[in-house]
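Notes from the pairing session

We agreed to fold both candidates in a single pass and log them together. This is the raw record for the first candidate, unedited. Please don't reformat it; downstream parsing expects exactly this layout.

Candidate A
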Amino acid sequence: MRDRLCTVLDILTAAQQRLFDLDNPRDLAVATIISVQGSAPRPVGTSMFVDSAGAVHGSLSGGCVEGAVFEACQEALATGICAVHAFGYSDEDAFAVGLMCGGAIEVLVQPFRIGDADVAQCATQDDPVAMVMRLPSTHREQRSHLAAVRDSDGDGMLAALEPLVEAKALAAVAEQVASMIRHERTGTVRVAAPDGSNEPVELFVETRESPSHLVVVGANAFGQALVEAAKPLGFRITLCDPRSAFADPAAFPDAEVVQAWPHRFLADAAEAGEFDRRTMICILTHDPKIDIPALTCALGLGVGYVGAMGSRRSDRERRSALQQAGVDDEALKRLHSPIGLGLGAQSPAEVAVSILAEILAVQGGHARILPLSRGSQPLHPSTT
């Protein structure tokens, strides 16, 4: 999930504050991962910046190449030239600058001066759907411009890209950028150079990905703990309970609170297009008159995760009731009940951790979970 990461779109707000500070404005250099091969601690699009006073905001690797990126940012601040730097693991010298996890990344380091017009244009009140940066070329000035894209297609797209791309390549570039935005992808777009040279037009596109949707059914201690524990993960969180006395918005400040019967809310939200394959639905009410209709609906929505709280006995009774309600065996196989991983959790906070751990395991495609110390599985997703 990219929900927890600091990306260019996230960095720009802090960068704007630093560049346009009325009392103490500072130049800064932004470092962004534009390519990942193999195992790496952060995915494409992760960003950080270093300002002229040496202050750092964000992180690219959690430590292993941070020092080298810091030096590259200082160099960019001194020269005003942007560049792409490669970092990987060295078998000959394991203590050389590189990723100890064995992967390789390319990092674009881009300087910005106080009052930079690109940042001023991009960091406005209207949230862009994507940020596009022209990567440096050996055949032109080493300056990487960026632009905010606020319309995913049409004239707005062309107007945003026009300062970055030659007129002859504009239509082809816009088509590829629009496709990446529609599919919520982040990465590099390459188009043949309009002048026939061997160097293509390269742009890095970071698309704003909509947050995964976590639906928590049950305004109780377990629901409250799950909402609080899920907040740092960047999910869009909805808390649903038909009891107005318990579903108090003030008690769940980090969630959208819906006072309705859960099965009706789920059906209406699904019809409105609010759910997708990344959606997670957690039924924590432990009340058959709420659980059975809600689960019957949830298991037919094609969402990524459906879980329900209860003991082994209540799980058996619940599955039998769901079968009687018409839920087939294949749908029941997708039900995570009793909810959560077997961590021996007891308190609401501990149960919340076990639920989120299971959700992350399901999202990562892990059918069997072992401690990292007892397995050989990669620590980070492998990307080519």
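Candidate B (folded immediately after A)
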Amino acid sequence: MLKYGSILFVFLCILEYGTGLYFHIQNTERKCFIEEIPDETTVLVNYKVELYDPRTGGFMLTNPGVGMHVSVRDPDDKIILSRMYSSEGRISFTSHVPGEHVICLHSNNTSWFSGNQLRVHLEIQVGEHAIDYANIAQKEKFSDLQLRIRQLIDQVEQITKEQNYQRYREERFRQTSESTHRCVFWWSLTQSIVLLTMGMWQMRHLKSFFEAKKLV
């Protein structure tokens, strides 16, 4: 598993809702988030970086040259995305493997930092919530009814993907439980055999001792 100086784990119980938050980082700090995502699901990440201003005690917009490096890894620890972005942007990727995806952000430039603190606003949208329906309606020239039908179709598809993902998780849990049960069974059996063997050896040893002392 990935090792980082500072890792922030965010688990979503319901995947269809977006996650909006902000966090603070230092110059060498890396923040990572875990998203449980079904396969073939679009994920949209919106972020904005602000720099702490010690004169006002607040946060201000950073210089255009300040950027954030974003990387995404799938459950098999394969890199889906890894590149440098500006101080404010939108990142989109599609999952191809169901499971926990790790999204990490950090700055690759420390010269401008001077020990100041960054505030990163982050919003993660999964599934149909990552689709820009206003842009689709304008591009495809959909009516309100057609757009609503398109939204309902996307929602049904997302629900199907989530149900498949839940079945996948249940199967993984069942396999883990069966594997644990087998390990416990064989460990208990081994302990019993060892105890029986030790008991028989001790009995034979005591019998030989008593015979040598002519006590029996």
